[in-house]
Amino acid sequence: YHRCQADHPEFTTTYESIGQTVDVDISYLDLMVVRKTILTTYDYILKTFTDDEGVQKPAALRESSAKDSKQSPKPEADKDVSDNVSTLIQEALDTIRVDVRFKGTDFSLCHDDGTPIALLSVTAASMRVLLTHQMLVEATIGNITLADQLDLMPSDESSAMSETKQFNHQAQQDPRRLLLYIKGDELADFRYETFDTSSPSYPGHNATVKLRLGAAHLTFIERPLCELLLFGSRFSAMHGLFEAARQAAAYGTTQLTEEMIGSGNKCHFDVVMSAPVITFPRDGIVPYSSSSDAGNSNRLGVDVIVAQPGELTISNEFTTVHEVGRDWDVNHISLALQRIGL
């Protein structure tokens, strides 16, 4: 954490005119996901930190608290100090930059007895938040892979562990065991920026959203996918948590949409999303034991059908039209769906 005053001689050079800078670096994490352990911990948290009945304060304690509050009014000096602290905090938050860098995580999905089902790996991710008189949010997520780990022999398991230590890059995976992977360098690239209408560089809109989603490649191998669906269904006890998170996300999205539309602010967006490319092997089986084409990541050694739903592009552009004696702002929205194939 760095804090620099505006009159510092290196404020505009070394510190790039940013009053506060926060840098967070998170190492690579290896996590084992076991249903029994997670549900036991979830149940413990519910019983320990939640109170459905709502414990009330004893009457005597409530009366005592009310009496103390009446007899001890808040001094005026304390109010002045509080106002000064609030002013200092507000000034401190005027310019701040937060950089978070994450090397990645391996999620080993396992049965209750510890036998592995699949390995979900997320490589490097980063996020930057810059707050000045404007706001900038940037986030990128690297590659993501989901590898089948059913029926791993001891030698294969030790090999998988060594790959985990090397951050599980896609090139180190057996291509026949990859259920999900991304072609390209990044899974997602997100950017959100607001603009000051009084700035000389004002582009004509109040905010801009840019999103790029890479194409995920899913291999539909019947047995491991059925095991994963069964693994996920066993978390039904956490349905309340998932539903609360879904409702919160839906409510936040609705509020943001209403605010953007109702306030009359102009928001420019540029979104390119590639739909998952799904590969269906013959009979839903890939012979891991076969040595044919094992070194070729583009072939599974069996006949396949490849479904490519396509790429969706959404963008808009603002123009001004003079009609009926006044200027009107027109929002042109373009939508395209391309590269569909089977």
Quick overview of this protein structure:
The protein has 342 residues and is of the alpha+beta class.
Describe the structure.
The strands form two sheets. This protein has a ten-stranded mixed sheet, with no helix packed on it. It is built from six helices and 18 strands. It starts with a strand and ends with a strand. With 342 residues, the protein is an alpha+beta fold. Helix content is 27%, strand content 35%.
Average pLDDT, rounded to a whole number, is 76
Tell me, briefly, the overall form.
globular
Q: What is the oligomeric state here?
A: single chain
Order of helices and strands: EEEHHHEEEEEEHEEEEHHEEEEE
Catalogue the unreliable spans.
54-58, 155-171, 291-298
Helix/strand structural class: alpha+beta
Order of the strands making up the biggest sheet: 1-2-4-7-8-11-12-14-17-18
| Share of residues in strands | 35-45%
